[in-house]
Structure prediction request, 462 residues.
Amino acid sequence: MAGIFYGIGVGPGDPDLLTVKAVKTINKVDAVIAPKSGEAGSTALAIARPHLKKDVELVNLVFPMAGKQEDWREAWRENKKVIGGLLQEGKDVAFLTLGDPMFFSTYIYVFRLLQEEGHTIETVSGVPAFCAAAGRAGFPLVEGDEVLSIVPATADQAMIENAMRSFNNLVLMKVSRDTDSLLAMLARHGFSRNAVLVSRCGLPGEDIVHGLPEGGGKVNYLSTILARRDR
Amino acid sequence: MAGIFYGIGVGPGDPDLLTVKAVKTINKVDAVIAPKSGEAGSTALAIARPHLKKDVELVNLVFPMAGKQEDWREAWRENKKVIGGLLQEGKDVAFLTLGDPMFFSTYIYVFRLLQEEGHTIETVSGVPAFCAAAGRAGFPLVEGDEVLSIVPATADQAMIENAMRSFNNLVLMKVSRDTDSLLAMLARHGFSRNAVLVSRCGLPGEDIVHGLPEGGGKVNYLSTILARRDR
Prediction:
């Protein structure tokens, strides 16, 4: 019988923010997939490592996120074959992913590829980074009848400005690119006072800056801005 | 020495979706606050109960959500006094809340009231219901450069339509009120094919309906719609 494929959200950084279900699941599977995007180690694996059983089969797979899209596709198809092979051997396989699996993750692509081939899949939800950032910073995200927009800073600029114009509560992700122009945009739309920048939430080197930071600095890759419009 | 106030996200329903940190924390505190909004029992307590130690002091507090706002305020101030009293006695207190504490929760108001009085507060993040709904339904929420709007169906109609017009990925919360007009609005804005309604996610009576459901039915209070615009 073919194995089950589990997508495991390991949460934002603190190993204690895995769910009980995630811990139980990675302790019962036969193989654990640790995805990484390049040379650096897998952050998801570092977070989950305290919970892994010693004799688990650990499979490192590289999912390129930069460079030519054709090269990615080829690498991803190869990865799918590796995972499909393990499942065909009857092994249950857990795929580790940062935050929540269905929310801005590499897992989504793997999920679709394996779903097309009819594999049995179970997704184990996790705490998204923006919730943990709000908790660590003591920054309520959204309440009552308010709308929350979650915007990657890599989106089209018109779309980002549209969100800033339309809604009073924002989560900005992937803010390490073009940070200065993003900060200027936030200030222009009245988000300067009630904002917080959280970097490496729950990881070594965590940094929390209340109010919009001064521009010009380098912002860590794992950074999120939470903001509410000034009243 | 005054105690510490912990806000504990218990996640959406499945007791195994509490984080390891939430379980550890409710096992070390002296008192646990189970909030409820009226006559019915506390859903957050039902979810956390398997993890509670037997001799913990359990405090039921009613936080009214309906009726006159002045009456609420009075009740909430009274609740704050009860919690403040426990903290002054040197007790560590955990306040249970559905999903994530900083995301559409009663906890936010309690957090603000206690923060004003200078209490030491720690928030333990949880899995929000919309992530768990996506996981259970096998419905990827948002990826790449897309924007996700999270909209309570109790928001102003113009604001709901603005979100539907502007962005391709939606989470609609509190959809049990005016469900038919909401479904019509979704269909009008091209969200009819890629949508799923998830009720009582991870709780007894869980229901998952793919595609927009037919109107006219009664929808459970704990229901969420996830939708992506048709292409």
